[in-house]
Amino acid sequence: MEVVYALAVGVLAGSGVWLVLRPRTFQVLMGLTLLSYATNIFIFGMGRLAFHQPPIIDPSQSVDPTLYADPVPQALVLTAIVIGFATTALFLVVLLALRGLTGTDHVDGREPDE
Amino acid sequence: MNVLLEHLIVLPIVVPLVTGAAMLFLSEARRIARVTLALISVLVQLSVGVALLYLTSDAAPFIWPEGVGVYAVGHWPAPFGIVLVVDRLSAVMVTLSAAVALATLVYAISRWDRPGQPFHSLFQLQTMGLNGAFLTGDLFNLFVFFEVLLAASYGLVLRGVGAVRVKAGLHYITVNLAASLLFLIGVALIYGMAGTLTMADLAGRSAALADRDRALFDAGAAILGVAFLVKAGSWPLNFWLPGAYSIALAPVSAAFAMMTKVGLYAVLRVGTILQEDETLAAALFYLGLATLISGAIAMLAAKHLARLVSYSLLVSMGILLAAFGLRIQALTGPVIFYMIVSVLTSSAFFMLTGMTDRTRIADPPVMAEDNPMPRPVYVAYGIKEPSVYRGDEEVGIAVPAAMAFLGLMFVCCALLVTGLPPLPGFVAKFALLSTALNAGQVGAAPWTSWTFFAAVLLSGFASLIALSRVGMRLFWGGAARATPRLRLLEAAPVAALILLCLALSAAAGPVARYLDSAGRSLHQPDTYIHAVLSNRSKQQSGREPP
């Protein structure tokens, strides 16, 4: 599982960085989205990977911390997802405004050859 | 009264939040109501800031012993819940941010808040993010407040019209989103290794880490530092800053002058709590030096006043980072003093830029080069443009001798930026340099101090050249200039900020003493840590009347 997890984070982050460095605004947007996915999965992994460990304490069982996952990273991921979602939406609006104002989707607002 | 005192720390966050949200319900036509609300909110923040300054000082030891006030949000004790902590540095920052907010708000009311978009709500939310970042004692909460203030700033930077502004806004948003992701990765690594996010708790736990975990923890701290340095505008990470700051409307960039300082504040706070090692501090010194030098060179090359001011902001950030990187504890007080002066100066200067821009008739602003006919954002979305706001003539009282006033203010700002007497720019730089040179053994200051000394003086000289060139072109140049009609509401904030600087210069003794004590307590985090972690027992034992 660790290998799959590490590969997922690595592939997402790598593709994200590559896309952020591309000249088209939509590619940058996709890159930022992929990067935030990578970050979110990474935060989740910081609570350690484990099977069959719910983050919520079951009152019928004995309270033993080793039986449960750490809930804090999951709460952090939730916050990060919400914030990332909102800023991505805002980015999309700016992207469309730039496209409407300049007639091109280059990040500099004009084609490099002109 | 006691209830107010108890909840005083959370007021700078709650008040702008409620105000900003309430203003969304006021229709576009209720401008007076919104302006009144905004002014009240900022005034409340300013008075709370002053109250916090008083309560954290030595004058009132009976309320918060050691000058550290702790507010446990939702009454959850420190390592488990989020705490807000106010110490001297936080109090200074909150007051400074409220003062700058008041000045920029008054300036904005004179003409800039009119067209479309909820300016006042965004402005309130931005001050909320700033105050929250200064007050929080939790690393992830710091991230949330960073995002709040950045989200509001994204809206503010896009205010106004033109493809150039949208383009600069896009770059600004991209860079800051990427930096926020770095912030998250750093926080996650730190949490994964140390198992806590409360800054006070981190200090003890990071010291007790095993070597194996230590490496990852340090990597997390370094990534976090990179995120802070992006916000602070440190050298290889600051190419987004001049574009965004010089393109934004004048009051917006004036308010932004405070934002780079959040990055510096975070570096100061987290850096002293985690007690970073020598190599990281050395890196900070070299980065600061590079920021300083590149900023000074860029100032010499800048053509437009707003860009010049943005670069001067970078120079001041460079000075601050390099001074902090020298690792001289006595230097922290002067660093905070210089930071205050620099915030007030750049804020006043950005507002001044908004006024001098109106003197042009022959040569349009530089930004027009790229885009001969800036079309409003409304065109981009196919929305009908709202009615153009009223002309200059109708609003407010005009200031007599507008050009003379502008010239005087320009000279004052230039003196402040370059650090020439009698204005406090000189006092601040002098304090920095003399402390840096006197720190070591007698007559044997390390070479880093001398390098710093030379770099600061040379950058001051460079800014003097650049500013006098721009000033001569602006006020004595041959090109035809219109004398703008200045309203009292826009002239007064600039003058007020300059006067505040003068007052700081006159009261330099007590102010420096207070800031020195702030710096000392920053370098002895034990009192801070103790105050935060012992909060639980104090709450249970009940509060004795003072």
Task: Describe what you observe in this structure.
The complex is a heterodimer of chains A (114) and B (546). The mean pLDDT of chain A is 86. Chain A contains three helices and no strands. Chain A has helices spanning 2-20, 25-45, 71-102. In chain A, α1 runs antiparallel to α2 (25-45) and α2 packs antiparallel against α3. With 114 residues, chain A is an all-alpha fold. Helix content of chain A is 63%, strand content 0%. Chain A has one domain: Orthogonal Bundle (Helix Hairpins), CATH 1.10.287. With 546 residues, chain B is mostly helical. Chain B has a domain at 277-364 and 396-506. Chain B has helices spanning 2-6, 11-23, 31-56, 88-111, 119-135, 139-157, 163-194, 199-207, 211-232, 240-247, 250-256, 259-274, 278-301, 305-325, 332-356, 377-381, 402-418, 424-438, 447-476, 488-506, 508-523, 525-533, 535-540; strands at residues 69-72, 83-86. Chains A and B meet through α2 and α3 of A and α6, α7 and α16 of B.
Which key terms come to mind for this protein?
heterodimer, A: 114 residues, mainly alpha, Helix Hairpins, 3 helices, 63% helix, elongated, B: 546 residues, two-stranded antiparallel ribbon, globular
Overall body shape of chain A = elongated
CATH architecture of chain A: Orthogonal Bundle
What order do the SSEs of chain B take from the amino end to the carboxyl end, as H and E? Answer: HHHEEHHHHHHHHHHHHHHHHHHHH
Give the strand tally of chain A: 0
Helix content of chain B: over 70%
Strand portion of chain A: under 5%
Secondary-structure map with pairings?
The complex is a heterodimer of chains A (114) and B (546).
Chain A: H1 2-20, H2 25-45, H3 71-102
Helix pairs in contact in A: 1-2, 2-3
Chain B: H1 2-6, H2 11-23, H3 31-56, E1 69-72, E2 83-86, H4 88-111, H5 119-135, H6 139-157, H7 163-194, H8 199-207, H9 211-232, H10 240-247, H11 250-256, H12 259-274, H13 278-301, H14 305-325, H15 332-356, H16 377-381, H17 402-418, H18 424-438, H19 447-476, H20 488-506, H21 508-523, H22 525-533, H23 535-540
Antiparallel strand pairs in B: 1-2
